[in-house]
Every structure is written in structure tokens, then in C-alpha cells.
Amino acid sequence: MKDVLKQLKAISTAVMYAAEARDLEDVLERIADAARELIKTKYAALGVPDGRGGLEYFKTSGMTDDEEALISHRPRGNGMIGAIMRERKVIRLNDMTGDPRTSGFPANHPEMNSFLGAPIIVANHLYGMLYLTDKLNGDPFTEEDETLVETLAGYAALAIAGAQLSQSKSQLNLLEERERIAMQLHDGVIQSLYGIGMQVDLMRRNGETVENHHLDGLVSNLNDVIEDIRSFIGNLRRRETPLTVKEYFEHLRDRLHPPRSVDIQIEAPETYPSFSPAAFESICLIANEAMSNAIRHADASHIGVFVEQNSQRGTFEVVVADNGRGFDMVSADKGSGLGLRNMRQRARLYGGSVNIESQQDEGTTLKINIPLGLY
């Protein structure tokens, strides 16, 4: 009984150690090492199926990196490891070389004779295949060895499942970060580039001669955009002193480089925003997108931006209204592009909303409403 308890403690300790690994591959390697140490064998290996009959991962224990490098190819899910994958049961052999399920070893593979393999399986879900070969004392594998490996495999399934979940979460976080960067680039940098492009296009249409001062202005604007890109990548802003709400919105307007034919009026409080810098910047990019759309698509001559921090109602409100040609709201909702989707998604992140009212030839009004005091 003492031996059994000692073995169970060794298994639980080994699997807990494996579960603390930094990634899935490290978890697999630690489990293979634990199995070899527990049963006292020359070699151990653990494979994870790829769902197509092959192996997604394969980790060994008992060979050096140089010895592994000499082997002509990695296992492909054939032979005994494939038999465990297909049969999903323990396989114990005194001499594996004579078993018809053995596909043979590739060049420079170490000699292996006795074999003990078990599926790592829970609720009919196969997480992997664990096997050991050749006990150090030369004895064949026993029923006790089989029980220990099955027990270890049961614990190992939990460790592998946890590592796979953590890996999936990391991948999801990466996708979310990519989405955030895409939104930042679309709502900020790309709008600035549109503004510069409009300047060049207007000069071309008006037949203006490109003077040095024109080029200097365009180069300066492009340099500003390059700095914005650097800021987005590093998730930093260059400003050392905070801006008031009005200063920030004026900065947004100026970075859009509106043509002289479009008048943009900013009415905003000259107080500091009631949000963290990152949250305020993110919220203001919604208004930035709205102003950019009005410049590019509405054919408007006037855009009014009205900002209010209403502490009594507990809201931060932005209204962007233009006198442009407007659009059909039904068609717009059906075909919402990246810009409108980004605005609404960004507002929802902060518990707010974006509402649009528009009629053809009567302009468009966009209202942003974000609760105060949460961020």
C-alpha cells in the first residue's frame, strides 16, 4: 500500500510540474520525462494527433538532441504509435520487432525491443499517445507498469488539455490584438493619409503648380503620419503634456488636413477629459472617423463638432453634423462597412453607443454617447 501511495504521489507531482510548463510542447516533454523516470526505461515518447491520421507534436525522452538529429525522419503516425492512436487501448509487448503493427525504424533510430504504450484519453477525446521502451534492468513490462502508465496518462490528459486551452486563449488574444491594431490604423493613420491624398488631388484638379512650399507642407504631413504609425506600433503617444478636450479635437481636425472648401467648427470644453488617456483617445477616434467620412463622402461645406462632458447625466457626448448630401439609412445599415462597424464596436467596448440620422440632400448627424467615470 505504501508503494502504491508513493507511486501515486510521484505521478501527481510529475504532472503538476508538467502543467506549470510555459507552453504545450514543454508540457509534452515533461510528461515524457516523467514517464521514463517513473517506469525506469531507456526511452519514452509522447505524440499528439493532428486529426488527419498524423502527428502534430512528437516529443521524446532518453535521447540527446544530436542523437535525434541523426534519425532520418520523425514519426508519421504509423507503426506502434499509430496502433495506439487507432485502437485507443494499452499495448504491452515483450518484443515489438515481431509485431505486425511495427512499421520498422528509420535510419539511425536506436534499437528498441520491449514496448508499453497507452492512449491519453478522456471522455473519448484522444489527447495523445504515450509509450515507453526497454526497462533499464532488462525485465519485461509488468501489469503494475501498465497500471502506472494508464494512471499517468489520465493525469497527463488534464495537463495537456490545460496547455491547449491556454494556447488557444493566447491565439485568441493575438487575434483580438490584431483587430485592435487594424481599427487603430483604419480610424487614425489611414484617415490622415486620405486627407493628404485629398490635398494632392485638389491641387491636381485645380491645375495648381507644385511649388516648394506645397511640397514642404505635404512632406511635413507625411512625416506626421509616419510618427503616428510609430506611436501605434509602440502603443505610445508623443505628447508629454495632456491636452484639453477642445485641444484634442482641434488636433484631430488638423490631422485630417481638410480642404479649404470645408469649414470644420469645433465646440468643446477646455477641460481635461474624464477618461484615461488610452480610453479617451480610443473614443475620440470614433469622432475622427465621422469627420473623415463627412469630408470624403458627404460633399459638405460645413461640419460642426459639438462635445459635452455632462457630469449630471454622467455622459460624454459628441455630435458630428454636416450639411452634405446625406444618404439612405436603410441601405447604409444593410451595407455597413468597416468604418461604421468599427465606430459602433469601439463605442460598445466602453459601454456606449453610436447613432446616425441622415436624409438625402439634408446632411448627416452622428451622435456618440459614452458613460463617464468608468475608464
Task: Write down how many β-strands occur, each being a DSSP E stretch of 2 or more residues.
Answer: 10
Low-confidence stretches: 232-240
Mean pLDDT, nearest integer? 76
Q: Mind summarizing the main beta sheet?
A: 5 strands, antiparallel
Keywords summarizing the entry:
375 residues; alpha+beta; 5-stranded antiparallel β-sheet; 5-stranded mixed β-sheet; 10 helices; 49% helix
Task: Tell me what the structure shows.
The protein has helices at residues 2-19, 24-39, 65-70, 79-87, 143-205, 212-234, 245-255, 277-297, 329-334, 338-349, and strands at 41-49, 55-61, 91-93, 115-122, 125-135, 263-267, 302-310, 315-322, 353-358, 364-371. The protein is of the alpha+beta class. The strands form two sheets. Strands 2-1-5-4-3 form a five-stranded antiparallel beta sheet, sandwiched between helices. Helix 1 (2-19) runs parallel beside helix 5 (143-205), helix 5 (143-205) runs antiparallel to helix 6 and helix 5 (143-205) crosses helix 8 (277-297). The radius of gyration is 32 Å and the shape is elongated. The model is unreliable at 232-240 (pLDDT under 50).
Short description:
The chain has 375 residues and is an alpha+beta fold. Helix content is 49%, strand content 20%. A hairpin with a 2-residue loop joins strand 4 and strand 5.
